[in-house]
Amino acid sequence: MRLTILGGGGFRVPLVYGALLADRGEGRVTEVVLHDLDAGRLHTVARILAEQASAVGYAPRVTTTTDLDEALRGADFVFSAIRVGGLEGRADDERVALAEGVLGQETVGAGGVAYGLRTVPVAVDIARRVARLAPDAWVINFTNPAGLVTEAMSRHLGDRVIGICDSPVGLGRRIARVLGADPKEAWIDYVGLNHLGWVRGLRVAGRDELPRLFADPGLLGSFEEGRLFGADWLRSLGAVPNEYLHYYYFNRETVRAYREAEKTRGAFLRDQQARFYEEAGRADVSALGAWHRTRDEREATYMAENRETAGAGEREADDLSGGYEKVALALMRAIARDERTTLILNVRNQGTLSVLDPDAVVEVPCLVDANGAHPVAVAPLPGHATGLVCSVKAVEREVLAAAESGSRTTAVKAFALHPLVDSVEVARRLVDGYTAVHPGLAYLK
Fold it and tell me: How many other C-beta atoms lie within 10 A of the C-beta of residue 321?
């Protein structure tokens, strides 16, 4: 089975390859094709994978290419994890937004809109090529903003593109662990959009254990989201939000912390990654060793400003292990081998949430089998969540419309309608600022 990884020179690729090395079942991936526009990074990542595979006799064969069509031909699965504009673009997204006093995070607020506007045209081109060159392939999308990009690709690939994210998995795992339950045995009632969802229940042997969490202040404040949001606010909501909702519920505090930080997250990662690829590219250095050291620092500093604002302290050791590669592998296995499983995924709504149309991509539990991912019916969203989900989905639709039409006016509308952008004039200045620094937005007229 052939897996093509788009963004194959990216830092997280060794996580995916490591998961493949641990898979010894029949029908496993036997060939991995790495595609990237940066040949130097491709070479470095290939060195890391070779070190990972050095003691594994059945390791998937790895090839690299900078030719997208070559990478897609013959693929059974396509894993898309591209970053249009690179980390320099992410740092610019943050800088331009913070100069206007609004959030520049890569998937939330003005930064997310900007990132979506320059990523959607590229993702659509990829989707069209997949449909032409590998029509039977399944596309697993991790490219951010994951829900928005998955929806853009689904207009050309239908249900053969599925978005994944490790945030819901990590959240469910933490709640189950606090309640003394095995995460593998728990049903997570999670619903929303990518980076905009809530856990409303956690069922073990048919019993919802979440009320027990809310009834115990000690338990409620003992895990990351409890410390991040505060026990009182979680009890008020009657649900546990995805960590990214901290940007909405504590927006003013977060923007202040980001503006006061020595570096934004994007600038930190840009500089860190530059050092890593320089070090790992040296012949006298273990590329895998350099990768492990860099990854430990990267994971430990994740959402540091939010945790500092909330007084949440350091991340727990169990939360530093990632997880999206495990979701991707479970998804591939379920489809390729018909190993039926349940995963929280980004898929077309198909009536799952009555407040959204059938083609809107949502993030919900899905039953996965050889025919793909099937969203499970969920209870209606509470009022506070309905308003936010509908508002952000409306913004996503304006981003898609702007990317399709090239309309600058529609791009301004996308920014202005976002709940975290507080003025139409700010939205206009954001478009001016982003088009000035991003060549990828030159299509907006």
Answer: 12
For the chain, state the CA radius of gyration.
21
- Strands 138-141 and 161-163, by their bridges, are parallel
Report the alpha-carbon distance of residue 353 to residue 284 in Å, rounded.
Answer: 55
Classified as helix, coil or strand, 186 is: strand
pLDDT tens per residue, range 376-433: 988 889 899 999 999 999 999 999 999 999 999 999 999 999 999 999 999 999 999 9
Half-sphere exposure of 208 (CA within 13 A, CB side): 10
Q: How many CA atoms lie within 13 A of 215 on its CB side?
A: 6
User: In sequence order, what DSSP letters do the residues of 72-92 get, joined into one string?
Assistant: HTT-SEEEE---TTHHHHHHH
CA pair distance 174, 228, nearest whole angstrom: 13
CA distance linking residue 425 with residue 423, whole number of Å = 5
pLDDT tens digits for range 137-165: 999 999 999 999 999 999 999 999 999 99
Residue 45: burial class (beta carbons within 10 Å; 0-12, 13-18, 19+): buried
- Separation between Cα atoms, residue 74 and residue 76, nearest integer Å: 7
Q: What is the mean pLDDT of residues 211-235?
A: 94
Token pair of 107 as six digits: 């998937």
- Please say if the pLDDT value at position 95 is more than 70: yes
Q: For residues 344 and 177, what is the distance between their CA atoms, to the nearest angstrom?
A: 18
CB 173 within 8 A of CB 181: no
Q: Is residue 410 within a helix (H) or strand (E), and if so which, with residue range?
A: helix 408-417
CA-nearest of 372, 394, 381, 327 to 354 is 381
To the nearest 10°, report the CA torsion of 386, 407, 109, 199: 30
- 302 sits in which H/E element: none
Mean pLDDT of the residues in the chain:
93
